[in-house]
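User:
Note these tokens:
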Amino acid sequence: MDELAPHARHLVDAPTFGKWTPELAERVGPEGRLVLAGVSTDCCVLSTALAAADTGAEVWVAADACAGADDASHAKALQIMDLYRPLIQVVTVAEVLASVA
């Protein structure tokens, strides 16, 4: 999203479903936060968030900057990720921007 672009230090665009790689883990670091946005919530975002949380990374999913295959799949994926609190937090773009202000 354009609102997040000035705050993004690293963008990842890869042809795989999950984007959590050793390179991304190194960029996030042990004290960093991974903020996810993208398509599709029920595939790429979900697989990346779960893999990152498995390693102990703090993950924020900007729900209003994601889209699923359909509204029901999007909502279900967000509900599943919300079960992983506090490692995964489902937030809004406004909350992300407020955290970097």
